[in-house]
Amino acid sequence: MGPINLRYCTVFLCAGLVAACGGSSGDSGQPSAQPAENEVLVAQGRISGSIEGELRVFRGVRYAAPLIPQNRFTAPGPPLSIEETYIADSFGPPCIQPRGDGVTGSEDCLFANIWAHRDLASRPVIVYLHGGRRNGSAGSMPSIDGAAIASSTGAVFVSVNRRLGVLGYLALEELIAENPRRTAGNYGVLDSIQALRWVQDSIAAFNGDPQRVMLVGHSFGGRMICSLLAAPEAAGLFHAVALLSGTCTDRSILSSQIDAYTNNPPLLDEHPLLLDATGCAGDVDVLQCLRNLPAAELIVAGEYLETVLPNENYPFRPAIDGVVVQSDPYTALGNKLVGDVAVIAGTSEKDVEYLLAKQEIVTDEDYRNLLRQIFPPPLDAQLYALYPTADFESPKDAYVMLGSDYLEHCVAEELTRSARGAGMPAYLYLVTRGFDNGTRAGLGALHAIVTIYLFENFAAWHYMPDAAALAITSTLRTGLANVARDVQVAPALTADGGLIWPAYDATTKAYINFDEPVEPLINHSNGRCEELRQLLPL
What we know:
This protein is α/β, with parallel strands linked by helices. Helix content is about 30%, strand content about 15%. It contains 18 helices and 20 strands. It has helices spanning about 10-15, 145-155, 165-170, 175-180, 185-200, 220-230, 265-270, 275-280, 285-290, 295-310, 330-335, 355, 365-375, 380-385, 395-420, 450-455, 465-485, 530-535; strands spanning about 5-10, 40, 45-50, 50, 55-60, 80, 85, 95-100, 100-105, 110-115, 125-130, 155-160, 210-220, 240-245, 250-255, 320, 340-350, 425-430, 510-515, 520. The radius of gyration is 23 Å and the shape is globular.
C-alpha cells in the first residue's frame, strides 16, 4: 500500500475523479489512467483487487479513517485519500475482541470486503453485518465468504467490520461532556452508518446500484439493524433489511432521562464501573487515562464487568440515546424514520435453546416453579396458560418455546407487523429443518442454522446436505436477492417464479417455512405472539 495522504478527502471534491482534496485532476496526485479490470477508482483513490473466476474481489478496503488510541470513543471519520494504488488482496484484521482467555484483532479495523462482477451490469447490493462479538467475529470470517452469494444471486456482496465491546459502546458522562452532540456510546452503530455512506459514495465503481442496497444482519448484526432503523443519519442509505435471528428485545437506554421501555439498566449506571476495573477511577483526566491504555486491557476489563454486573446481557451494546438512535425499531418503522424500507425478518425454530438449555426442567412442577421465580403473579400463571406443558413434548420444550417466542419469533413478527402497518413491504420466515447428520444431527433448527444454509457452510459442521437442504439455500438466497433487486415485487423463491414469498399481514400472519419442502404457511407461531404482546412488552 502506498503512503496515506493525511488530508481528509471530501465526497464533493473527489466525486467524478476530480481533484483529491483540491485542485484539478491534473495536479491532484490522483491516478488518471483507465483502471484495469481488477482496479476501481473511488473517492479516496485507486484500489486494486483480484480476479477470481467471474468475480472481482476486493478485501480489506478502508471505509473510514484509521482508528488510533487518541480517537477512541469518537465517531469514525471518512476514509483518507491515497496517492498510490491501494492493494486490496487480503482481509483487514477483525476489530479487537475477546478470544478464549485473551484477545484477538486490532483497534484499527474498519475495513470492507467487496465481491463484485466482471461485467458492466448495474446490480443490487447486499451489505452483510456479522453476528457475534468475540472469537474472531468479523466481516472476514470464513463462514461469511461472499463469493457463493454474489455468484448465485447476481448481487454485489459487501461485508464490513465494526467496533465491538468497550471500544464500540462505552458511555460515560465525561464522553458526553466532550462531545458537541452530547451523547456517548453507539460507536459501532456510527461505524455501520459510515460503512453505508461509503457504499453510497463508492459502490457504483464496483457496478453496484446505490439505490438498491439491502442490509442483512445475523444475530448481533440483526440487532445492529434494529438500531439503524431508528438512526436518522441512516436515512436513505439502504432500502431493505433482512434480520436473521436478530433480536431487538434487549435494547438499552443511555440514561434514565430517556423515556423508553427497556429490560436493562441505563448504560450510564453500568459503565462507570469500567473506570475501577481499569484503574482510571479518580484520575484527573479519566478519558486520557482510558485512551492511554492498551486496547487489550480495555477489552479484558469489559469482560470482567460482564461477570460482576447483575444484568445478564453483555453491558456494551447499542442504546437508545435520543441522538444517534432515537427510539425502538417498531416505533421508528411506524414513523418511517429512515424512509420506506422493506423488511424481511425471521428466526430458527429453536433459536434460543442454547441460552435456556442449562435449566433443569424435568417435571411440570419444575416448569411452574421456574415461571414463578422469573415472573410475578399473576403473570406466571398467565404465561403457563399460554404455554402449557400439555401443548408440547415436554415441560422443557414448553419453556424453550416461551423463550423463543419472546426473544426471537415474536420480535420478527412485530417488526414485519410494524413495517406492514406503515405501508412498507414486509416478509416473515421460520427455519424448522435441522440436520440429520454431522455435529448438529438431531438438534433441530438452532441459532445460526440460517447462516449455514445461506452461506452453504455445511462442511464446517460435517453435514452432508441433501436435496432439501440445498433447496433451502437456493430459495433463501433467491428471496433475499429479489427483495434487494425490487422491493415493489413479491419475491419469487424459485428461478421459475413458481414459489412466491407472501407478504405478511396481521390477519393471516403469513410466512415462509424453510423445511422440507419450503412452503408458505399462515398463523405464524400458532397466533401466540398477539397474546404474548399483551403480557410482555417486546
